[in-house]
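Bug #77: duplicate submission created two jobs. Keeping one. Sequence:
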Amino acid sequence: MTSFLQQLFNGLVSGSFYALLALGLAVIFGMLRVVNFAHGALYMLGAFGAVVLGDDAGLGFWWALLLVPAALAVAGMAMERLLVQRLTALDPLYNFLLTFGIALVCQDLLRMKYGSHSRPYDRAPFGGTVDLGLFDYPRYQVFVLAVSVVVCVAVWLLLTRTRIGTVVRASTERPELTRAFGIDTRRWVTPVFGFGVALAGLAGVLAAPMRAVNSDMGADLIITVFAVVVIGGLGSVFGSVVAGFAIGMIQALGNLYVPVLSQTSVYLLMAVVLLVRPAGLFGKEEHA
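Kept job's structure:
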C-alpha cells in the first residue's frame, strides 16, 4: 500500500508539469486554433533561464520564478504579433510548421551556446523531506505540486469568476459566437498567447531543480503534453488540467505494475478516447 501511495504521489508531481503545460496549450489553441509546437522549447527556455540567472547573474530560485515567466510572456507576445498573427488567416498547418521551426531554432541556439550536455541547477529553495504519514517525500516536490494546484485553481477562478475571464473563456471556447455578439476577440489574443507561454516558462523553472536541464528536455516532453491536451479535449482548460494529473498518475502506476507499457499508456489511452469521444473527454464537438 505504501508503494502504491508513493507512486501515486510521484504521478501527481509529474502530472503537475503536464497540467501546467497543457493548460497553456489549451488556452492558446482555444483562442487562436494554433497548435503551438514551440511550447516544449519554451518550457526548456524556462529551465535554462533559471540556470543562467543563477550561474551568470547570481540570482536565486525565487527571482527566476518571477522573472523568467515574465520575460517569456513578453517574448511570446512578440512572437504572436510578429509571426503567428501573420499566418492565422491561412491553413492551421502553416502555424504548426512555424512553431515547429521556432522550436528547432531555440534548441539549436541553446545547443550552440551551452552544448548538448545537461546543466545542474542546485538552487532549489527547499531541501530534505516532509512526513506525509505513510512515507517521507522530498520537500521540493511537494512544493511543486502545491504551486501547480494553486496556479491551476487561480486560472480557473480567473476564467470563471471575473469579467475578463468570461470574455477570454468565451473567446476560447466559442470564438465565432463571441464575435457575433460584437466582442473583439483579437484584442485578447496577444496577452492570452503570452500567458500560455508564461505557464510553459513557469513549468520550466519549477522543473530545473528536478530534471536534467538540456536543449532536448522540451522535445522529450511535448509529444506527451499534446496527447494530454487531446485526451482532455482540444481547447478545454478544465479537461487539460484533469488529464494532465490523470496521465501523470497512470504513468507512475504503470512504472510500478506494468513497466513495459508505462511510456506508451498515454498513447493507448489517447487512441481509446478518440475512438469513443473524438473531441476528447471534456471537449465539445463542433457541428457544421
